[in-house]
Write a structure and sequence with these properties.
4 helices, Helix Hairpins, four-stranded antiparallel sheet, 381 residues, Elongation Factor Tu (Ef-tu), domain 3, six-stranded antiparallel β-barrel, alpha+beta, OB fold (Dihydrolipoamide Acetyltransferase, E2P)
């Protein structure tokens, strides 16, 4: 009995060790890898680049006063439709002290000269009646009086303009700001009682209102220097406006800036594109928008995911299943690619089962848009 117990202990220890070793070996064995396959599909392949920008009117006109002063009356507000000549605002002139003094001095000087010419003419008429001077001499005094009368009238009109901004009985275009084009008032940046500055050669003046044709809108955006070489005037655009999520507008690229600008450390080129309006959809100025510039397009072509394509010695190939769990390499020729799907020119058909490489699982299909970084915005934004 004394010999049996130690033997049982030894057997138990040996059995426990053997079981542990078998468990560790079993755990270290990898499960058999089952290759996943997929087939080519018929798709539309669109190669595009994305430009970010805003919707703006093609033409905007800023209405500015011709005299400095204070806004006495505003006749319109943003959103109103106007025609050329419609009143927009009235300015109450605040005379400049120096200009007012010069104008008053000019009137006084003209009045003195007029009174003197009038006295001279009276004396000349008396002399002419006595036969002392000739008629030609009398005519000279009459002409001088007429000239002094004209100067007095001009000086008086100048004083009225300085005080009121316009002559009495004349057009009040200087104090009343009117629309110079037809369109919609999209902005009125001033208020009643606010001081404004006239537009002249040295100052652009205060903007009273901005008028634009809201029926002719364009997309104005930026394209990264890495993409600008791929686009040209006349290409179609698909424009998506952030505020109108359900609408996509057609556009045509009209302008590409010849010179780029440094924006946030990158060189950006300005582009402009016309927008085809839609009935019943009002586009407001300043909407942010993205434009997909279509570089090339193939409709209803056989395509495979680029993640299935492998490279070796400068050749593109895929692994096609020839028998259950048996695969063979097959060279493929690809056409247009959008960064995720590539057009198949030759090499495989929609009947072939193509092996998914280890890094080409379903997660790869959820990548970002062409030209973008996973989880980040597309290039050119």
């Amino acid at each position: 009995m004394k010999r049996i117990i130690p033997a049982l202990i030894v057997l138990a220890i040996v059995g426990l060790g053997a079981g542990t070793m078998w468990w560790l070996w079993k755990k270290s064995q990898k499960p058999p890898v089952v290759a996943k396959t997929e087939a080519a599909e018929v798709k539309d392949i669109v190669k595009k680049t994305v430009a970010t920008g805003a919707i703006v009117p093609r033409e905007e006109v800023e209405l500015k006063p011709r005299v400095s002063g204070v806004i006495e009356e505003l006749y319109l507000q943003a959103g109103a439709m106007v025609k050329t000549g419609d009143k927009v605002a009235k300015i109450r002139v605040v005379p400049d002290a120096a200009a007012l003094q010069r104008a008053e001095s000019g009137v006084q000087a003209a009045k003195i000269a007029f009174d003197n010419a009038k006295r001279e003419l009276t004396r000349a008429q008396q002399l002419y009646a006595q036969g002392v001077i000739a008629e030609a001499e009398l005519q000279r005094y009459k002409t001088d009086l007429a000239l002094r009368q004209q100067e007095l009238g001009s000086a008086g009109s100048g004083l009225t303009i300085v005080k009121e901004g316009a002559t009495r009985g004349g057009p009040a275009s200087n104090v009343v700001v009117t629309a110079t084009v037809d369109g919609m008032v999209i902005d009125v940046p001033v208020k009643k009682g606010q001081s404004v500055i006239e537009s002249n050669n040295f100052n652009p003046g205060t903007t009273i209102a901005t008028v634009a044709n809201m029926g002719d809108m364009i997309f104005q955006g930026q394209v990264d220097e890495s993409e600008v070489g791929k686009i040209k005037e006349g290409l179609p655009l698909a424009i998506k406006i952030g505020a109108l999520e359900k609408e996509t507008f057609e556009g045509t690229l009209e302008y590409i800036a010849p010179k780029g600008k440094a924006i946030d450390g990158a060189i950006q080129f300005e582009i402009k594109a016309s927008i085809k309006p839609k009935a019943g959809v009002f586009i407001r100025a300043g909407y942010s928008a993205n434009a997909d510039v279509v570089l090339a397009k193939r409709e209803k072509v056989l395509a495979i995911r680029e993640a299935l394509v492998q490279q070796k010695d400068g050749q593109s190939f895929v692994e096609v299943e020839t028998a259950p769990k048996q695969f063979a390499r097959r060279e493929v020729k690809l056409g247009l690619s959008d960064g995720i799907w590539a057009e198949v020119v030759s090499g495989v058909t929609d009947k072939d089962k193509i092996k998914q490489p280890a890094n080409a699982g379903p997660a790869a299909m959820k990548g970002g848009p062409p030209g973008g970084r996973p989880g980040g915005p597309p290039r050119g934004r």
